[in-house]
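Field notebook, page 419. I keep forgetting to write these up properly, so this time I am using the form the group agreed on. The chain and the ligand, protoporphyrin IX containing FE, are recorded exactly as supplied. Prediction of the bound pose follows.
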Amino acid sequence: MPSSTTLLTILILTLSFLPIALSSHIQACSEPFLKLAQQRNISDCKRLRTLGAEFAWSYHNGTNSSTVLEILFGATLDAPQGWMAWGVNPGKRPEMIGTKAIIGIKLSNGTLGVKTYDITKETKHNCNLFPSDIGLGLSAANMLMRREVFNNVYTIYARLTLPSEVYNVTRLNHVWQVGYHIEGDRPLRHPTTLRNVDSTEVMNMTSSSGHSTGQYRSFLRSVHGVLNIIGWGTLLPIGVIIARYFRVFPFQCDPMWFNLHIGCQLTGFLVGTAGWAIGLSLGHSSRYYTFHTHRIYGILIFTFSTVQMLAFRLKPEVTDDYRKYWNMYHHFLGYGLLAIIFINIFKGISILEGGDGWKWGYIGNLAFLGAIAFGLEVFTWIRFFMDKAKARSENDEAIKHDRNKEKQDSVEAPKPTKT
Ligand code: HEM
Ligand code: HEM
Ligand SMILES: *[C@@H]1O[C@H](CO)[C@@H](O)[C@H](O)[C@H]1NC(C)=O
Ligand SMILES: *[C@@H]1O[C@H](CO)[C@@H](O)[C@H](O)[C@H]1NC(C)=O
Ligand SMILES: *[C@@H]1O[C@H](CO)[C@@H](O)[C@H](O)[C@H]1NC(C)=O
Ligand SMILES: *[C@@H]1O[C@H](CO)[C@@H](O)[C@H](O)[C@H]1NC(C)=O
Ligand SMILES: *[C@@H]1O[C@H](CO)[C@@H](O)[C@H](O)[C@H]1NC(C)=O
Ligand SMILES: *[C@@H]1O[C@H](CO)[C@@H](O)[C@H](O)[C@H]1NC(C)=O
């Protein structure tokens, strides 16, 4: 039955895409960075998930129920001037506002400096960022920014004391950031690509692998991507293939083609709409950045597929005169829709910057569907020409037969006269 087939398809696809989507595997540090950490007797080290940043840490119990945390934060600063920051957030969530930050600044003449800052709501709006005392036992003596010998990498080393009532080292909110604009020695706004807004996590400093959570936005983005790829990107095209090749020619599977077509299109539409809604709500909650083209295509896709879905109810009767035009329009819009869907999926994948897993996963998916469609198309034409050839030879045969018959007729009997 159509429903179980589509369910199976969804299941297989989900199983093949989820690992890519949800892999939040912890990556070990690069060799040179690990060396730098070891020079400071810091052995735990991991790559952070954005901005090419790396992070090494060690901790021990301090006096007065506190934890002494030593960190080494490294990131690439390609621009002639800029800043990089690392900080902890005593609030509920790992986010920019409320962060106690250590910011290292690189001036255009190469001078480096590192200071502490309180990041507030005002910072986000008009960026009045001036150094302030954030406590945590931080002073010029235990903070250092350095240019390392490889690949424009800069590091910030700091030793801070976290009071246990405020910070729990088994789930510490920490954030990092890199910006490319400064004014004098004041850091200015950083870019707001996904890389820059995904640079937060909740980390368990007592786990030597650096286990982290708190990436619910990027989790939702992955869910958005998976649902859209399955709904719009896979089930709808399968439904189109079914309608094209199994309706009349080369295979006539009535009414199975119709049930399967409707099953695929309806499930695809529902799954895709769920993904679309997640995308819209993500877009809505991040007021400071919008992906205009992706958004517009997304809205077009939803609108036109809704129109296509209305075909259920508004389809003219087979006998109606304008059924032919209606069919033309339904097919035309259908193929146009597929084109926008494919474009938008690749746009989404490039926004996500999720690496090649997504891209090749979907290209593989399309190649598979494309191969099936191509095979069926070739088969259609072969069958078309064979049928035609057969019809012609049958026709020839028939004509020959007729002629023979005529000859015989003419011999044996007078030609029939028209009446
Ligand atoms: C220099 C002035 C700064 C300005 C004007 C600024 C502005 C912004 C803006 C507009 C966003 C996008 C928010 C959204 O739509 O979700 C953002 C996000 C973010 N910023 Fe900043 N920022 C500044 C400094 C910093 C610093 C120093 C840090 C690091 C300590 C930082 C860390 C982050 C993080 C982690 C996000 C991700 C989203 C969030 O947590 O709100 N920013 N920032
Ligand atoms: C054809 C299928 C798709 C549709 C209709 C769609 C639709 C949307 C819409 C309407 C938004 C909100 C845009 C905004 O307001 O800024 C959005 C955001 C987004 N989409 Fe898609 N999308 C599709 C496929 C994908 C895919 C395949 C991926 C990635 C694998 C993806 C990744 C994203 C990301 C990363 C955002 C930004 C979320 C945020 O603001 O945090 N999209 N999408
Ligand atoms: C690292 O540990 C070794 C041995 O315990 C010690 O000799 C060395 O001074 C330490 N280095 C730093 C930077 O603390
Ligand atoms: C820190 O102190 C707690 C008890 O307060 C103890 O259980 C833990 O092992 C100590 N950790 C280190 C690294 O000394
Ligand atoms: C620990 O707390 C006591 C009393 O609150 C204070 O006098 C002392 O300076 C504190 N020690 C440290 C290292 O902060
Ligand atoms: C770089 O410029 C800053 C201020 O503009 C100045 O304080 C510093 O001494 C300069 N450094 C060098 C190496 O010229
Ligand atoms: C820190 O969080 C863990 C897990 O939620 C909890 O078991 C532990 O008691 C907390 N420690 C402190 C000092 O609050
Ligand atoms: C943090 O990691 C330690 C060591 O792996 C583990 O025992 C502890 O349960 C973890 N705590 C949390 C809150 O994840």
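OBSERVATIONS:
- The two ends are 57 Å apart (CA to CA).
- Confidence is low (pLDDT under 50) at residues 410-419.
FOLLOW-UP: compare against the apo run.
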